[in-house]
Amino acid sequence: xxxxxxxxxxxxxxxxxxxxxxxxxxxxxxxxxxxxxxxxxxxxxxxxxxxxxxxxxxxxxxxxxxxxxxxxxxxxxxxxxxxxxxxxxxxxxxxxxxxxxxxxxxxxxxxxxxxxxx
Length: 118
Fold this sequence. Notes:
Helix content: 10-25%
Structural class: alpha+beta
Number of helices: 2
């Protein structure tokens, strides 16, 4: 907000360091922010191929849902162009992402991969 950096990740090829703005909640690490953004913007097939056994990623034209077994872990919903709501159900936080010119393109739903409740 207001052009301030709240989280920064630095990778030197071996080590990942993070720095957070004062007052930033500890539950939301820079790594978690990166992971959340990857869930929203990376191609669904690449995310699915990296999931461990027991994890699934369902997608519709306006949402993605990450589950471990039957438990909903994370959901991302396109509320409007450039406005995404990401909910970390098990971590207990919600992030509103307002992007400038970048809107995720979720796939058309299929019967095998549609979220139960987008």
